[in-house]
Amino acid sequence: MELSVQTSKREELVDITHLIEDAIKKSNVKSGFCILWVPHGTAALSINENADDNIELDSLKALDKMVPLHAGYLHDRIDNNAAAHIKATIIGTNLTVPIENAHMTLGTWQGIFLYEFDGPRDRKIIVKILKG
User: Fold this and answer.
1) In which region does residue 81 sit, left (phi positive, over 0), alpha (psi from -120 to 50) or beta (all else)?
2) Where is 43: in which H helix or E strand?
C-alpha cells in the first residue's frame, strides 16, 4: 500500500499515526508487523512523542544545530539541499512496528512522524502489513 502526504513547509514533522492505523484497520491483521518506508532522500520516519507540539520545534532545532544549512556541503552545488539529505540519513527512512489486537504497539504518548527536510512536497510512504 502506498500513502501520500502533502507537506507544507521546508522543514516540518507530520504526525501520520492516524493514516497508519487506518491502513492496519483495512488490512484486517490482528497480530503482526507494520513496515514503513519513505522512498525519498530528503524525508525520514521516526517514532516520537505526539502529545506536545514543542517536540517538533525542538527536534528540528537540534537537527539544525547538528547539520546547519549551507555549511559548505559539496552537494549544495547540485541542488542546494545537502543538509536535507544528511538529516534524513540521521533520522532514517524506515520503521517496523509490532501490531497486537489490530493496533500498533506504540507507547501512550508515541506517534509516527514523517520528517520533511526539503518541502513543501508530496511524499509517499510505503506501508507493508504482515500477519504474524
Assistant:
1) alpha
2) strand 43-49
Dihedral of CA 2/130/100/28: which sign? positive
pLDDT at 132 over 90: no
Contact by Cβ (8 Å): 19, 2: no
Query: What pLDDT is attached to residue 68?
Result: 95
Domains identified in the chain and CATH numbers? 2-131 (2.60.120.460)
Query: pTM here?
Result: 0.94
Q: How far apart (Å, rounded) are the C-alpha atoms in residues 122 and 119?
A: 8
List all residues 6 or more positions away from 54 whose beta carbon is below 8 Å from its beta carbon. Answer: none
Q: What angle do CA 5, 95, 41 make, to 5 degrees?
A: 55
